[in-house]
Amino acid sequence: MKLFLDTAKLDEIRRAAAWGVIDGVTTNPSLIARERAPIEDRIREICGIVDGDVSAAVVSKDWEEMTHEGRLLSRIHSNVVVKLPLTRDGIRACSILSKEGIRTNVTLCFTAAQALLAAKAGAYIVSPFVGRLDDIGAPGLDLVRDIAAIYKTAGFGTLILAASLRSPMKVTGAAKAGAHIATVTFPVLEALFEHPLTQKGLDQFLSDYASTFQETAVG
Ligand code: E4P
After folding, report:
1. Cα 160 to ligand 1 centre (Å)
2. Which residue of 92, 107, 191, 202 has the fewest C-beta atoms within 10 A of its own C-beta?
3. Which of 141, 152, 186, 204 has the alpha carbon at shortest distance from 3?
4. Which of 91, 96, 97 is nearest to 74 (CA)?
5. How far apart are CA 159 and CA 161, in angstroms?
6. CB-CB contact of 7 with 185 (8 Å)
7. Measured from the CA of 163, which atom of ligand 1 is nearest?
8. Which of 159, 183, 186 to mutate to test the pocket of ligand 1 (most atoms within 8 A of CB)?
C-alpha cells in the first residue's frame, strides 16, 4: 500500500519526504486555503519536493468549468492528479478528462455505489472518506472493504485511496481492507512511529552499552 501525505504545508512535506516513506501528496481546497497560497504555485512547489502523485482539486461546480480547470491543473506537472467531487458534474468532468488521458481522483466518496460510478467514469483514484463516516456512526473501513470487493469482481483498475484516516489503527485497517493508498495528516504520520516499548527498549540498549564501554570512544 502506498502512503500519501494529506497536507498543503511545505515544511510537513519536506520532513516526511526526508524519512523516505511518502509516495505522494493529497490536497483539498480547505488545506490550500489554510496556507493562503495560490493553488498553482503551491502544487508546483509540492511537485518539486515529492516525486509521486499530487492531487490538486478543482473548485468550480459546473462540469465545463471543472473540465477546464482540470486541464489547467494537469499542465502544472506530470505528477498532478485532478481531484473532482463525486457529483454528477464531477463524474461528467471525470469521464471527459479520463478520455483525454488526464488522471483523476474522485473524492468525497461515501458509498460503494458512488465508487462504482467513479470507476465507470474512468477515475484513476477514488477516495472513500473513512473518518467522516466514522464521525456519523457508520463504519468507514467497511466501505473500503466493499469497494475493494466490487472492484475485484468487476475487474476495475481504479485505485482505492483511503482518506480521512485519523489514527494509526485506521491506516493499518485500510491496508487490510484492500486500500491501494492511504493518505494521512502529518500528526497521524508521526503517530505511526510511536510505541512506548520502542523508546524503552532503545534507552535500555544504549544505557547497557554505555555502562560497559563508557571509556571506549567508537570511531
Ligand atoms: C483526502 O483527500 C482529504 O483531503 C482528507 O483525507 C479529508 O480528511 P478530513 O475528513 O480529516 O478532513
Report:
1. 14
2. 202
3. 186
4. 97
5. 6
6. yes
7. 6
8. 183
Is residue 83 flagged as an active site residue? yes
Q: For residues 165 and 173, give the distance between their C-alpha atoms in angstroms, rounded to a whole number.
A: 10
Cell numbers linked to 187: 500528526
- pLDDT attached to residue 189: 98
pTM: 0.95
Instruction: List CB contacts of 169: < 8 A, sequence separation 6 or more.
Output: none
Residues 6 or more apart whose CB falls under 8 angstroms from that of 94 comprise 84, 104, 106, 118, 121, 122, 123
Ligand 1 centre from 217 Cα, in Å? 49
Catalytic residue, candidates 83, 120, 170, 200: 83
What pLDDT is stored for residue 214 in this prediction? 78
Cite the DSSP H helix spans in the chain: 10-19, 29-35, 39-49, 63-74, 88-99, 112-120, 130-135, 140-154, 168-177, 186-193, 196-213
Instruction: Walk along the chain (219 residues) in steps of 10 and give the mean pLDDT of each run.
Output: 98 98 97 95 98 98 98 98 98 98 98 98 98 98 98 98 98 98 98 97 97 71
Residue bearing the CA closest to ligand 1, atom 11: 164
Cell 473524492, located at residue: 107
Q: CA–CA separation, 153 vs 99, rounded Å?
A: 23
